[in-house]
Amino acid sequence: MRITDLTRRQGDFLLKIDNAYFEPGKIHGMIGSNGSGKSTLAKLIMGIIPADSGCIDYEGLTPRDITMTGQKPYLLHSSVYQNLIYPLKIRGIEPRAELVDQWLEKAGLQHKRKQYALSLSSGEQQRLSFARALIFGPKLVIVDETLSNLAPDGVRLFESIMEQQQRENPITWITISHQLVHISKLCDEVHFMEQGRLVQSGTPEQVLKHPTNPSVIQYLANTEVSFKG
Amino acid sequence: MNEPFFSEFFGTIGMLDSIRVTIIMSFFSTLISSILGVTLAILLERSTFPMKRLVVRINRTMMGAPPVVMGLLTYMLLRKRGPLGFLGWVFTIQGMVTAQTLIITPIICGMVYSYLVREAPRIRAFAHTMGANRMQTNLLILREIRNEVYFSVVSGYGRSISEVGAVFLVGGNIKNVTRTMTTAISTLKGAGDYYEGVFLGIILMLMAFVVQTLADWFRKEVREDENY
Amino acid sequence: MMNKLLTASLAALMALSLVACGGDTTSGSQSQQSSASGSSSQNEVKTPEDPILLMATTTSTDDTGLLDYLAPMFKEDTGYELQWTAVGTGDAIQKGMDGEVSVLLVHAKAKEEAFVNDGYGVERVEVMYNDFVIVGPTDGPVAYTEDVNAAFSQIRNDELTFVSRGDNSGTHTKELGVWSAIGVEDYESNPNYVSAGAGMADTLVMADEMGGYCLTDRGTWLAKKADFPQMSIVCEGDDNLLNQYGVIAVNPEKYPDTNIDGANAFIEWITSDEIQEVIGQYGVEEYGEPLFFPNAK
Questions:
Q1: C107 and C194: one domain?
Q2: Looking at the whole model, is its pTM more than 0.95?
Q3: ipTM reported for the complex, 2 dp
Q4: How many angstroms separate the CA of residue B156 from the nearest CA in chain A?
Q5: Residue of chain A with shortest Cα separation from B123
Q6: Residue of B142, B173, B211 lying closest to C3 (CB–CB)
Q7: Which domain, by its residues, includes C111?
Q8: How many domains does the structure of chain B reveal?
Q9: Strands C231-235 and C121-137
Q10: B214 touching C, CB under 8 A?
């Protein structure tokens, strides 16, 4: 996926990406301080908000191939099961029992299929949202700070699902996170955003271990504790 | 107040017919107002135009419009000399339903609109991430605020069965034809028969209670239905 | 979709209760019909082409139960079903001017004559009269009299409490006519003059509560006086207190779709000797005296 001359103004804030490339089939990490424009970029890619100018070349992906799951996912006022099969339903796909069971198990919700989704714990809600985003076989998944306030075993669950997906059927991921451990472990490429611009991209090794941009150095210094811990 | 007195008395006021008229009228008023109100709320929430804030404010004002004024307006519209006189709806249930629709539609529209303003953007964004098309998105929004829609409809229904001014003006309180339970109570009160009026009022409230209970029960059924 | 489902379900519920109530109503009216046909034969009466006759009338004919008493007999004799809306006199005449009803039964002679003269009505036919009485506290300052001038003057001059309908009804119009006839124009300067803006029964209740006087039609008074043991008639029998009811068919030249045949049938029927006698007897059994006095010519 290639982004060219993309701009979007929101009040005083200006997002401006001159040129960026997200290689298909890879896991891309987006880092940067709060308010740097990561979520805005995610919404632009998702198409939830329109760009002022510029273009995004999805390289053949249609809106139905792209999905996003956020920190506070929207859950239907219905059961866990109904939530999980919703993307299948709108695509007219019959929800096969084994597929549903498989994803319920991956998300650790196999015993809660009949439960009212909004009565789940926040961790369970995020896992349900994650499973729901993947069940229909998307080609590009944006994970917006889903991991930020998860317990360590929750993070490991997400990581194992992502790793399994990449082994079996690689898709493109854009994961926005402050957890540098997670980023460095999983991601094929890391992109650092600062004040609405993409300032450095590269492998985790290049960006996290040998940062060249002063903003990146500053950011890493501030988050060093959590990184090393 | 022994039993024979009551049975004779309620024959005179036309009680059974007033119950029948009330049920027919409130059913159609609520049905038409719900369809119109929900549709208008969706259109209003979806569209942007220069005077939108004004339109919303007018809607809010109409939610509190005095029924008797709406009734008078409807009467003037529907009377033979009025613009809709050709319909011949004065002193008919159709006429009463028209007046009530004018009263209840803004209430349902206003309530549903405020729920939509609060909920629709999130639901729309979510539907987009799921790849839903426009139609699926709208259905999802309605589905997601169904309890609120239901609540608005029940509020409209409550307004319909309790309303008296407009129904009196347009329907004429004709015994066995357009006399509703509320106008029957008003007639009883006018004749000084207070106890009988209160008695009929209690029946009216019991009816509202039964409908509410049935609706609640049904709603519960729906929710359990989905949890297969 | 859910919304439709909910609406449909609500519809189903209401329809269900409708069916239940409908059943009740049918059985009720059937039993009424059977008892009516049991009392006398109605074989000769043909059902008219347009069997519904709409009438606008004043609250007094409705509140006293006279119309409820007459309507089944009218149906039996002529086949017409009389339906009426009971409103204030002004409103009733306005409904005639709008052509919403086919016939009027009201008591406001001047307005009725204007209605006919303006071409809205065919002809004003006198039917009956009732009379007004002044009622008040039994042991109050106004002594029983047959002179309305004396009673009203005393109320005005001694600033006694007087509760007026104040609703532009026929009774209110009558009261204003009496004030005018006895030459008192400043009746509202009486600090104890209360304009209630209420119906007759409510006005009586107010007068009773306040220990004051009020003008009421005799019919309502007779029907309600059991509720007011502290009150009695202090003035009656004056010519100024008579209240003439007229019946008028709405002019079919103005409104061709009104039921002129039904209206004429009603006028002919209610002014017939037989029904005039029925009107004269109405209320005697219950109250010991008639509520209305027939005087059709």
A1: no
A2: no
A3: 0.87
A4: 24
A5: A74
A6: B142
A7: 52-130+242-294
A8: 1
A9: antiparallel
A10: yes
Any chain C CB within 8 A of the CB of B157? yes
C187 and C62 together in one domain: no
Work out the mean pLDDT of chain A and round it to a whole number: 87
* Residue B112, both tokens: 């549903």
Cα–Cα distances in angstroms (integers) from residue B9 to residues B179, B193, B195, C62, C220, in the given order: 15, 10, 12, 14, 17
Structure confidence at residue A152 (pLDDT): 76
- Asked if B125 has any chain C CB less than 8 Å from its own CB, the reply is no
| pLDDT tens digit sequence for B115-135 | 999 999 999 999 999 999 989
The CA distance from B196 to the nearest CA of chain A, in Å, is 46
Task: Report if residue C15 sits inside a domain.
Answer: no
Nearest CA in chain A to B222: A78
Q: Which chains touch A (3 or more CB pairs under 8 A)?
A: B
C136 and C235 share one domain: yes
Domain count, chain C: 2
C14 occurs within a structural domain:
no
Between CA B45 and CA B115 the distance in angstroms is: 10
- Which of B17, B20, B79 has its CB closest to that of C100? B79
pLDDT digits (tens, 9 = 90+) for C97-144: 999 999 999 988 888 999 999 999 999 999 999 889 999 999 999 999
Lowest-confidence range among A193-202, C25-34, C156-165? C25-34
Are B131 and A91 a contacting pair at CB < 8 A? yes
Closest CA to A161 of A171, A93, A202: A171
Going by C-alpha positions, the residue among A210, A165, A160 that lies closest to residue A185 is A160
Q: Where are the alpha helices (DSSP H) in C99-212?
A: 109-117, 148-157, 170-181, 200-210
CATH number of C218's domain: 3.40.190.10
Q: What is the pLDDT of residues C156-182, one digit of tens each?
A: 999 999 999 987 777 888 899 899 988
**C111 lies in the same domain as C160:** no
Q: Does the residue C4 lie in any domain?
A: no
Å from A229 to nearest chain B CA? 34
Is A79–B226 a contact, with Cβ atoms under 8 angstroms apart?
Answer: yes
DSSP, collapsed to helix, strand or coil, labels residue C85 as strand
Q: Is residue B202 part of a domain?
A: yes
- Can you list the positions of beta strands (E) in chain A? 2-10, 13-21, 27-31, 53-57, 66-69, 140-144, 172-176, 189-194, 197-202
Question: Residue type at B137?
Answer: T
> Are residues A90 and B131, on separate chains, in Cβ contact within 8 Å?
yes
Nearest residue in chain A measured CA to CA from B140: A76
Taking residues B38-54, what's their average pLDDT?
Answer: 92
Q: Residues C142, C289: one domain? A: no
- Report the pLDDT value the prediction gives residue A206, as an integer from 0 to 100: 86
Same domain (yes/no): C201, C115: no
Does residue B130 belong to the interface with chain A, where contact is any CB pair within 8 Å? yes
